[in-house]
Design goal:
The protein is α+β, with helices and mostly antiparallel strands and 67 residues long. It is 46% helix and 19% strand. The chain has helices spanning 12-24, 49-66; strands spanning 4-7, 31-33, 37-42.
Length: 67
């Protein structure tokens, strides 16, 4: 879907860490498709700009902390 941002971290352990830290920031259900894995952020039409900005900042911070 064009509304989903899909990506993978280098490992399953990092996926779990990403999900846990995202949930702590109020970003839930970031897991990818059950048969493919990885991560998925859904950003539908009503998704606010502030939410997209928060996600972008979280992704940047997570990448800096975890390589």
């Amino acid at each position: 879907s064009l509304m989903n941002i899909t990506f993978k971290t280098p490992s399953d352990e990092l996926d779990k860490k990403f999900s846990a830290e995202a949930e702590a920031e109020g970003m839930f259900n970031m897991g990818g498709h059950r048969s493919i894995g990885g991560m998925r952020a859904s950003m539908y039409n009503a998704f606010p700009i502030a939410g997209a900005q928060a996600l972008a900042q979280f992704l940047k911070d997570f990448a800096q902390k975890n390589g």
